[in-house]
Fold this protein.
Amino acid sequence: VGRRILCLAIAAGIAASVAEGAPEPFDWSGRLAGYQRPARIPFPSDNGWSEARETLGRTLYFDPRLSQSATVSCATCHNPALSWGDGLPRAVGHAMKTLRRRSPTVLNLAWGELFFWDGRAESLEEQALGPITSPDEMNLTGDELLARLRAVGEYRSLFEAAYPDEGITLGTVAKALATFERTLVSAEAPFDRWVKGDETAVSEAAKRGFRLFETKARCASCHSGWRFTDESFHDIGLPGDDVGRAAVLPGIDVMRHAFKTPTLRNVARRAPYMHDGSEKDLEAVVDLYVRGGREKRPSLSDQIEPLDLGKAERRDLIEFLHSLTSEDPIPASPRLPL
Ligand code: HEC
Ligand code: HEC
């Protein structure tokens, strides 16, 4: 009997210390190890990297002649000075038409698996021609695009250097754009220096924020790995009639209102947030998660539930998100070929 009482006393003691918020053990180095940056950029075997391909892709990316009006380039909506987004809640395309979704960043997509907010493109090559020929975006037909490029002498030599004997085709345009995009990788951030062992690289608040991100706030269940995305699709409870991934995979109920988990690299530079630009800053994003989403539909992810995070904890989480910001060089727009 004596022993049983002792056990109960110990059990009560443990319960009391948990109730008082004593920290549970946390494997810092094990958790940080899940965020190591890869050593090199992967390129597909049928479109390997070469300097000539990167140069051609960069030139096309910044060339407004890829649009009907000759005023819109890829960089208009994926602007290097705005962390490769456009700073708008929703993109503005051809003839100033507001599109239904926000321009995502094109950073770190070499590791991407499916593209667009709803994952409807399976490669960067497949994605690249979409905006050019979309009437709402750049509004140029494939034939017009090729006629324009073939009329430019310097483009003929740039294509020949990049894809010898393949000519100026929709295929080589897409491959060059994809090659350039694969080279866009966010530089080392304070968080990466911490992962590598420099304990002074981030603040104590950011460290507490990382711990919350991994545990109580549940963020890492979707924002995982060094790019902070599971490359999957979730309904996190944003209202609206855009069904997201369900338009690509009809009949799968959990895919209704599900959108691709965005990278959190340099996220502090890319407000406003979400596929619809509905959250104006990181405070608003964290509030949304604390509430467990705003629209509680059957498709709502089971990882989204109200969170018990105090004010200081929310600040720590945001401080952690800031530690993912790197000082990336902003490439100068290339001189356009004549
Ligand atoms: C008018 C603005 C606009 C222009 C111009 C534009 N985009 Fe986009 N881009 C968007 C929007 C909006 C989306 C998201 C659309 C969606 O998910 O339905 C997007 C999505 C993408 C994605 C997918 C990113 C991801 O994480 O899945 C890539 C890659 C991309 N664009 C590259 C390009 C390239 C290359 C060009 C030039 C040929 C270009 N874009 C021109 C607005 C634009
Ligand atoms: C169930 C998976 C899931 C969980 C858990 C989750 N996220 Fe997200 N996150 C997403 C998805 C999906 C989006 C995009 C949703 C959309 O646009 O409709 C997103 C968007 C974001 C964005 C906006 C990024 C941008 O470029 O628009 C931020 C910031 C963010 N999440 C941070 C967090 C934080 C912090 C937590 C933890 C409190 C968290 N997320 C938990 C899946 C998740």
Observations:
- The pocket of heme C (ligand 1) is lined by residues 66, 72, 74, 76-78, 91, 93, 99, 101, 103-104, 106, 109, 115-118, 124, 127-128, 131-132, 137-138, 177, 181 (CB under 6 Å).
- Residues 5-18 have pLDDT under 50 and may be disordered.
- The CA atoms of residues 218 and 303 lie 7 Å apart.
